[in-house]
C-alpha cells in the first residue's frame, strides 16, 4: 500500500490499514524467519491486541504458525512472548536464475528458505523456447517433493539483460542474443500452468536480495555491481529499488570510460564494459573464448594477480568512482566474477576508487562481497515472486496454485 | 508518514491516519492552489464526510479557506461542490537561492505563490558570514509586507554545492570556496530568529520544483541537469528524490569523460565538467573570466552557434548518454546556462545523446527546458521549507513563528 499511497496521494481507510498491517507484519517475519509478538509490537508501533489479531489471521491463512520462543527471547520476569514462525507447509515460489551458460532453479519459501534446487546448462545460442523447456524441466524437478498443501504464489525469473518493467518483456539479453522475448509466457506455456510470473534484471535482483537478507540488511543506499559476461548494476536508494522509467536503470557497463577505447557491442567505443567486461578480461589473461562464461572459475584458479589483472582492478575502481559520485551509496557489493577479482586485486580496486571519487561520497562508502555468495540473483527472483504476499496476503493466496506437483504431473 | 512507514515497517493507527490524511489533502491543494471537495474525494479515495471534516480542520487552522467554485466546475445537475483554496493570510516560508554571484530571496506561500522577492549580488570571494548578512537583509526586505497573522513555517536555502543531508552542513561549495560551512545557523544568527531551516543542493531543488509544479508534474522519473559554474544533477526516481547515503547523489559533473582530458578542480583529469562546465565554455568562446558566473547572459547574446559551441553541444549529449544509461529517466530538464545552450545548439545536444545512449532507455527519454524558467531552485527551496506542513500540519504550525515582521524589526 505504501508505494501506491505515496504515488497517487490516496487517503487511507480502515480496511486498507488492516491489509497493510497484515502484509507489513508478514514482511517482518519473512525477514528473519521467526519473531516474537513482543518484537512485532515494538517494531510496528501497534498495541498487543492488534498484533494478536493479525497473527491469528496469518495462522488461519496457513502462512505462519506458533513458535515456542527460545529461552534467550524471554523478556523480563513474565511469560515469554509467543513467537510467530513461517509455516512449514506455507506458501512458496519458484525462483529462476537464468545465466548465460546455465540456469539455476529453486523452490523457495518465506524467510528465503531454499527448499529444493536444481540446475542445468543453457545451450549456447539456444532459442528462447529451448531454454524455456529446460527451465520448465527444472521447475518440475524442484516441485517433486512439494507438500500438496503448500500454495505456489508465483515464479520469479532473473535475466542477464534489460527487462521492461511494465510487462516483463526481455528487450535485450546480449549474451543470449535475445531481442524482445516474452520468456515468462514461454515458461508458463511449457509448464501448462497459469500463475503470476515476474522477471527482472539479474543485478537489480542481486541488489534486492542483498538488501533483504544479505550484506545490505539495514543499508538503505546500496549498489550491487555484477560482472556476468557484461556488466550491470542494481541500485537501492532510500530503501527503494531504482528502476527508471522503463525498468532499465543501472546500465553501468555502458558508462563512457575512454572515448579512444575499444568498440563495444552497443555500437559505441570505450564503454566501461570494454575494459572490465568478461571478454576484455579473458583476452588480458589469455583465457580461451569458450571459457568466458566461466570467468569466475578461471579467476579462482589464479594464485596471485598478474599485472594485467592489477590494471583491470584499477579500471574497476575508476569506473566505481563515477558510480559513487553519481549515487553516493553506503555500500558497493561486488557480484559475479567481480567477487573472484576482489579476492585477487581488491587493493587495486579500492585504490582506483579512492583516487577518483569525490571526498564527500568516498568517506562513507564501503566495498564488499555479497553475503549470499552466488545466490544473490536467485534469491532476488524469489523476493519479487513473494512480493504480492507483503502487499495483500489474502489476495496473493487467492491467486496462488495449490497441489502444484499433481498439476505438473498431469 | 509514508516514508517513515515504509522505511521502518511501522504499522498504522487511527491518529496517524488522520494526520496523514490532513497533510495529504493539503499537499493536493498546494499542488494546484485550489481544488473542489469533489476532486479531493475522488483523488484521495475517501468518503465525502471524511473530506469535509479534514477541510474544516484546515480552515480552523487558518491554512485554507472556502472558495466559490467557478461555473465550469459544476458537476452534474446538483449544487457545485464547494472549493478549498489556500488562505490569503495562510502560512508562508522564506526561500533563498544562493548563487555564486547573487542571492535571490522570496517569501512564498502554499501553492508556490511568490508573494515578495528581492535579490542582491554576492561579493566575490565573500566569507560565509558576509553572505549570511546579505541574505538576512534580503529576508528582512521580503517580510516587510507580510500580514501579521501569516505564520512563517521555515526557511529553505538552495546551495551551489554539496550539502550533508543529516544537518544541512555545506561540505563543499567550490565556486564560493566554502568548506564545511553551517550557513543555516549563520543566517538565523544574523536574523536573531529561531525557525526551522533546511538546505539542499541547487540541482536537487530544481528537480523537486520541476516535479512539483514545473515541466515534470506527473513524471515520476526525471533528472534536472544544471549548469551553474560547475555541473550537477537533481534526480527524482519513482517519484522520490534520490539523495544517497549522505545527500551527495547527482554529482554528474565528475563523471569520467575523457581520461586524457584537462585537469579538474576535484583533482582528477577529464571529468565531464572540464568539457561542459562554465569555465571550459567561457574559454572556448573567448568570454572574459569575470563573466563566467553570467555565462547564461553571455550565451543569450549569440545569434547563431559557433563551431566551438556545437562541439560543446555534442559533449553535453555524450555525457547525458551516460546519465540516461545509468538512470533511465523519462525527462531530462536542462537548467542554468544549459537553458541558453539548448536554444543555440539543441540539435547537437540531442544528436550527441542519440548517438551514444542505449536504445531501450533512449526511446522514452525527452530533453526539455525548465517550466519554471530560472526560478526552479528558488521554488524548490520553498518546497523543502513547506514540507513539514504536508507531514503534519498541526505540528508544523506549532513550530512556526507568527508576526515575523515585528520580530525582525525589533
Automatic annotation (TrEMBL), chains A, B:
What domain of life is recorded for the organism?
Answer: Bacteria
Output the InterPro entries linked to this UniProt entry: ATPase_NBD, ROK, WH-like_DNA-bd_sf, WH_DNA-bd_sf
| Pfam hit, one | ROK
**CDD domains recorded for this chain?**
ASKHA_ATPase_ROK_BsXylR-like
Write out the transmembrane intervals: none
Concerning its family, UniProt says: Belongs to the ROK (NagC/XylR) family.
Q: What name does the UniProt record give this protein?
A: ROK family transcriptional regulator
Amino acid at each position: 500500500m505504501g508505494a501506491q499511497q505515496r504515488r497517487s496521494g490516496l487517503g487511507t481507510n480502515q480496511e486498507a490499514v488492516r491489509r497493510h498491517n497484515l502484509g507489513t507484519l508478514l514482511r517482518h517475519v519473512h525477514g528473519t524467519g521467526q519473531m516474537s509478538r513482543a518484537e512485532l509490537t515494538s517494531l510496528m508501533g501497534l498495541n498487543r491486541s492488534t498484533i494478536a489479531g493479525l497473527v491469528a489471521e496469518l495462522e488461519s491463512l496457513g502462512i505462519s504458525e506458533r513458535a515456542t520462543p527460545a529461552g534467550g527471547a524471554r523478556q523480563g520476569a513474565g511469560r515469554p512472548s509467543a513467537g510467530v514462525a513461517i509455516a512449514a507447509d506455507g506458501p512458496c515460489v519458484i525462483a529462476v536464475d537464468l545465466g548465460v551458460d546455465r540456469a539455476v532453479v529453486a523452490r523457495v519459501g518465506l524467510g528465503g528458505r531454499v527448499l529444493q534446487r536444481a540446475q542445468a546448462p543453457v545451450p549456447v545460442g539456444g532459442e528462447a523456447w529451448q531454454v524455456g523447456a529446460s527451465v520448465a524441466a527444472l521447475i518440475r524437478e524442484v516441485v517433486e517433493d512439494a507438500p500438496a498443501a503448500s500454495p505456489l504464489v508465483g515464479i520469479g525469473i532473473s535475466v542477464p539483460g534489460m527487462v521492461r518493467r511494465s510487462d516483463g518483456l526481455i528487450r535485450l539479453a546480449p549474451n543470449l542474443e535475445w531481442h524482445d522475448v516474452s520468456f515468462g509466457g514461454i515458461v508458463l506455456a511449457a509448464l501448462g500452468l497459469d500463475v503470476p510470473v515476474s522477471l527482472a534484471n539479474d543485478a537489480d535482483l542481486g541488489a534486492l536480495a542483498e538488501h533483504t537478507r544479505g550484506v545490505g540488511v539495514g543499508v538503505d543506499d546500496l549498489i550491487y555491481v555484477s560482472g556476468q559476461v557484461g556488466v550491470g548494476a542494481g541500485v537501492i536508494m532510500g530503501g527503494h529499488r531504482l528502476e527508471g522509467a522503463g525498468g532499465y536503470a543501472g546500465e553501468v557497463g555502458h558508462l563512457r570510460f575512454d572515448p579512444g577505447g575499444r568498440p563495444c557491442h552497443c555500437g559505441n567505443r570505450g564503454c566501461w564494459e570494454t575494459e572490465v567486461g568478461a571478454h576484455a578480461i579473458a583476452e588480458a589473461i589469455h583465457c580461451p573464448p569458450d571459457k568466458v562464461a566461466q570467468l569466475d572459475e578461471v579467476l579462482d584458479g589464479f594464485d596471485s594477480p598478474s599485472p594485467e589483472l592489477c590494471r583491470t582492478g584499477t579500471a574497476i575502481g575508476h569506473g566505481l568512482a563515477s558510480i559513487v559520485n553519481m549515487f553516493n551509496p553506503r555500500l558497493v557489493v561486488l557480484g559475479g566474477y567481480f567477487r573472484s577479482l576482489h579476492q585477487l586485486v581488491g587493493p587495486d580496486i579500492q585504490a582506483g576508487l579512492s583516487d577518483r571519487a569525490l571526498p564527500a561520497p568516498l568517506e562513507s562508502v564501503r566495498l564488499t562481497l555479497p553475503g549470499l555468495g552466488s545466490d544473490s540473483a536467485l534469491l532476488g527472483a524469489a523476493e519479487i515472486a513473494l512480493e504480492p504476499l507483503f502487499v495483500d496476503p489474502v489476495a496473493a493466496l487467492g491467486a496462488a496454485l495449490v497441489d502444484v506437483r499433481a498439476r505438473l504431473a498431469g
